[in-house]
Design brief:
2 copies of one chain form a homodimer. By secondary structure, chain A is of the alpha/beta class. Chain A folds into 3 domains: 1-39; 41-243, Rossmann fold; 259-310, no CATH class. Chain A contains 11 helices and 7 strands.
Chain lengths: 311, 311
């Protein structure tokens, strides 16, 4: 049986192996994904972003149980920050979600972020195709923090959920600056804490006229308010379809995926054929014999020569 | 007078213009940087990272005043998160640093993060060369949060400072996972809050034997403890030079800068010559006529053909 068929048949071991291949950027993983790709396009991709400690996992956990009761199947891709040195990932409070492991309607995968920028988003996107082909209806991508790469992910999901907590102070300023505009749904979690209502008012005033983006107050630990968030996601999807916006977002996502795939191919060529040369050039740059931009020009020309002989 | 000479002469308007060109990735900016590059290599680059609200600006402000008293000149590059849609930047509490504006020994520049991943790090690095050529002794790069791009920056500075505050909870878990290992100096700011000492103990136990990395407790708002951090940075630099580690880090940084410059050149070619084609391919990908990886292959071949005719 081919990997593709195994994945489509729901063979968990084959799926896990493929996901690992994608996470490691192994070429055979992407080769297998090509065959799987015609079976994708049905899942709804939901990005869940928020600073550490706002309760992303807990909220996804609660929403998942909610959507399961409505008969939907769920995929979860959790992106962990990882050491650039050891490559080891952390599981943390994600352990509490293990109870879903006995439910075949939920598939959870933790993704260790390593290597260059863009690598995470690339692997995470590739993984959504696998979970999509598995038949999962809704796929959550959980990202930590507020870095540039997180913004990228937020921009290319179908529905983007931003989680806040009362008393985040400076965080609000951040939101003003970008993530706020990229979010479709706002959740104020730990709403039993002081300041939840004033945060809601502040958020609302920031959005001015754009009142189509809902703000939900939740206490995810006790499932309070999370059913409304689940409903909000389903409703948002309906709106996207109605306004032709879903297609626009998917074109954006496809374009992004394409571009990162090209970047990765070029990086592979450079790594394979020019690593030593680049190290030597870097030495010259440090010694001020050469500036980084002229050095880049040299590599660029070499790349052209490689293309001439290889393509 | 050429831009290079103006910059070397400390002409603030010429410097600001060049920095803007670099921020916007304007080719002439990098052309001018080539001429400036031989005048660089003296400054010490310090990365300052921490979650929103830990007091990064306040700490840099206090350290700066301290280093100024020792006669050192300071450059500060503050990276703001920015809307991917509006391109607008936020200044926030950075306004309080304006008092430095009357001190010619301090140069502050805020960098709006926009566009693709890697773009910020690229612009920030390019800017350090300008401040370096201006003769600034220590250049701070202030980054928010814990995204992948921030890790990149942390990996390529000479000295990396991580700021924490008591009661950060989950944040510690994050640190375990990567940033912790990339940091050279730890600062527990707002140390008057409960939990500062236990955070220190926790950090220390995480580091096991690697006791060469100091942990400083500060209350940056009142300058408490910040002189020690300033001293710690100077001491760390001495250690780097002593162990030949400074050169290793600078080679890493040069390699990174080179690679991102190549990436940017390729991106430019693709944007200029293949944007329409990529959009069409993305449509086919959304329609499942084509998978993203085969589409990338098509673009890749076209790129090769472009190289053949252009290089």
């Amino acid at each position: 049986m081919k990997t593709t068929d195994k994945v489509l048949a729901g063979n968990i071991r084959a799926i896990a192996r493929l996901l690992t291949a994608l996470e490691c950027n192994a070429p055979h993983g992407f080769q297998e994904l090509k065959e799987l790709y015609p079976h994708t396009g049905k899942a709804h991709i939901v990005g869940v972003t928020g600073a550490p400690g706002v309760g992303k996992s807990t909220l996804i956990d609660s929403i998942t149980r909610n959507l399961r009761r409505k008969g939907m199947t769920i995929g979860i891709i959790a992106i962990d920050p990882t050491s650039p040195f050891t490559g080891g990932a952390l599981l943390g409070d994600r352990v509490r979600m293990e109870k879903h492991n006995t439910d075949p309607g939920v598939f959870i995968r933790s993704l260790a972020t390593r290597g260059a920028s863009g690598g995470i988003s690339r692997a995470a996107l590739a993984m959504t195709h696998v979970l999509d082909a598995m038949g999962k209806n809704i796929i959550f991508i959980e990202t930590v923090g507020i870095g540039q790469s997180e913004i990228d992910i937020t921009r290319i999901t179908d529905t983007s959920v931003l989680i806040l907590t009362p008393g985040m102070g400076d965080a609000i300023q951040l939101m003003k600056a970008g993530i706020l505009e990229a979010a479709d749904i706002f959740v104020i979690n730990k709403a039993d804490r002081e300041g939840a209502e004033s945060l809601r008012v502040e958020l609302q005033s920031m959005m001015n006229g754009k009142t189509d983006r809902p703000i939900f107050l939740t206490e995810a630990l006790t499932d309070k308010g999370t059913a409304a968030v689940a409903g909000g996601i389903v409703k948002h999807r309906r709106g996207l379809v109605l306004h032709g916006e879903l297609d626009r977002r998917r074109r954006l996502r496809a374009g992004y995926e394409l571009t990162t795939a090209i970047d990765a191919s070029i990086r592979d060529i450079i790594d394979a054929a020019m690593k030593k040369e680049i190290e030597k050039l870097a030495d010259d740059v440090v010694a001020r014999k050469l500036d980084p931009y002229s050095a880049a020009g040299i590599v660029f020309e070499r790349l052209g020569a490689l293309f001439k002989s290889n393509v």
